[in-house]
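Forwarding the complex inputs:
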Amino acid sequence: MNVVTIAVRELRSLFATPMGWLVLCAWLLLTGLFWMLHVTTYVMQGQEIAFDPYGGASLSLADGLFVPFYGNCAIILIIVAPALSMRVFAEEVKQRTLELLMTSPVSTLEIVLGKYLGLLAMVGVLLLSTAQFPLGLLTWASPDPGVLAGCYLGLLLFGSGMVSMGMLLSSFTSNQVVALVLTVLSGLGLWIVSWGSTDPNDAFAQISLTTHLSELMRGAVKVSDVAYYLGFTWFFVFATLQRMESFRWK
Amino acid sequence: MEVKDPFALAARVAVVLGVGLVGAGGLLASIDLGEVADSLRDTGAVVALLGFCAEAVRARTPWLVLASALPAALVAVWLRADDSETNRHAGLVIVLGVPFLAVAARQVASAPSPGASWFVGASGGLLALLGLLSAGFAQGSTPEAVWMLGLGGALLVVYAVADRQLVASVASSRSFVYGSGAWVLVALMGGLCVGGYALARRNDRTFDLTERQSFSLSEQSRQIAAGLAEPVQVTAWFGATNPARPAFQELIRRFVEVNPGKLSVEFADPLTEPLRAKQDLVSGDHGTVILRAGGKTRRLEGEIAEEKVARELVLLQSQGEHVVCWSQGHGEPDPDDEADPAGFGGARSELESLNYKVRPLPVAREGIPPTCELLVVARPTEEWFPYEREALIAFLAEGGRALLLLDAMEASETAAELERVGVRVGSDVVIDLDLKSQLLGVDDPSLLVLDPRSGAEHPVTRSLGGAVILPVARSVRAVREAQGVRATELLFSGPEAWGETDPTQPDLQPDPGLEVIGRVPVAVAVEVEDPGALELAARAPTPAPEAEAPPVSVPGPEIPTAAPRPPDTSDRSRGVREGFAPQPGGKLVVVGDTDFATSQYLGLGNNRDLFLNALAWLAEEEAQLGERPPSSETLEISLAGEYVLCLVSLGVVPGIAVFMAIGTLVRRRYL
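Prediction (whole assembly, two chains):
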């Protein structure tokens, strides 16, 4: 129950100031821009295929529109998620309210989980706000709900990993900008680590965030991909818990 | 923080930096950047030694330089002269280890202030970390990683001894006790998460959420995999870095999942097992799959898709082969001729790869025996005799299967015979002036590009995803009023086309009432449901042979004998064989073009698939007929629609967020 209370409080605090709404606005503008670019490109591709007798069945909404669009959303999340998580503990340290928090009759685990769930809820709000895009297409097409479900599940898991990593890095510094930069750099590093890898089974490809997102976004939910993101998230949540516990005995 | 002795600090930093460079060189060496690695290691060793010397002089212990750094350097240079890796590593261990040991001995003897030996610990930690990274990059222990980890660990121990008071006080501090416990817990949790992921990978399953079930096997493939009679061993020759390997791994995993008892898979690398690859006739890493069962072997190469794997499993299990009789004697090209691009050598090769055995059949001499499972008549330029035409109809009436490829303006009388089985072959050339229906870059209105979805859904055309290209086709229509047969038109031209009966005229225009105009059919599939309705010519009873008188030997002049009479080719009944027994089930496919199946055009568009699908349907090989590919999902949004989308996506919804931001600001400031 404390976990839920802390999570709700965290979510409310994000929207209690204009900053939360402006972050949402920036997210909507960026994703909206990408959406229109992808839709326009897809419409043009369809027109080209109509005149090309060799085109065959090569155009699908999933591969031609949704996967590229939501892939771009993931890249935007690499910057937005750290912007949400940067203040979680850094601000507490800076404002010296961390001691108050740690001495409250709430366990460290509840604090960490509550804050994580609050951030996850915010990521959920961001993702939910993009539902207007495929819904707006219903007039002209029938998007595959399975593919959409895969895209949103993939992005939610991806965002979950990013905010948990951001939460840990935020706990190491009182400077929000430092926390933001460290998280963004870490996220980008985990994004590009597989670029030089030629073997999809090697270590670099396996630790990369992109490797586990691509199949999810096509509607193929693999147990290993879900296990990767859950393990990734839990590792950083656990590490944050240990970091928070260290404040008690320091 | 005030630095008491900047010179000593700089010297110690130089030592750590030098050790770091050596470690970085070792790391680069583990990823095969040998030349850069050597330079880094040599530079690092020199920097570290200079740092040692500077530190020793500053600490007023110049004997350290003479007793350790210089001899170590000389030994290292001597070992370095021999270019072996072992000596190089030994040299590095000596040039770094000996001075460090000397420093540690000095620290122990002189009891300096706590933390003075920090550079020993920092060097050891850095070297050990780089050693770990080196092992990680090389994905296993290498000599580089071993000596770096070993020396780094040793330096950490040396530091613990040299600065034991500080180490002891830190180790017994609350922060260290709880902190190290926390680090151990985090490391254990990390190990658990990695282990959980590895377990998930080993027992991976995919849940396909897509409507089209794009990541699941089709029902047909599942049935084929489940119905395997014999165990099948699959050897997949893919290199570790072959980009097609993961996709095939996933594909074959789905097949194995259906029938793990009968299907086993082994992945092999042609680069690491060249001898074995050579035995399997695998050269290079192009992705080759060998399937073995019951002494038979099939191979797959190139782009390997689910349909191909399913087809090979079927072919592996099939007991016999289909006999395809290829008609000869009416100007048909020889199917054995592989050199002629206008011949059918390519088609023959394709058939033989699918267990079809091609046998030339001189119809005029042998008729069409029941042993012919399939009959192919490809490009007859001369008319068939009436009795031959009757033999063809009789063959169909007895359940026979035939594929007829008829060129425009050729063998028109023979073609006209097909009206009896529901097919009307036009004496025309299909012309299409619509640019969309013409081959790009070819200015020839008789070369047709057809959409395989233009006709009713039929097994022959169902799986064709792309265009079929027919150079110079004639119209082929279904005769609706034909009795006892069901005829389906398979392929149509575009709506602007027509069947031109006089293609030599300069001004090509359709003649309404005389010519077939708009959506001209060019291929028909027929199923004989009631052979009795085909009205074959009755075979005349064979007269009994007359009793012959014994020969009389009478000498006399020789009587010239008359030349034997030519057979009566107009006697249709000759085409109906003795023992004729009509039965339903006969099938016929007629295509108004032969060029699409020649070697020159077979590889164009979906021509090969059309040819093979027609034969597979005739032979009732359902497994060789693929599933209908998904149709293209195009978006046709008007300009107004795009404006609305744009307005909502970039204006309305973000505007709501801005409005809420302003509202929050006002509320916080004024309420």
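Residues 542-549 of chain B have pLDDT under 50 and may be disordered.
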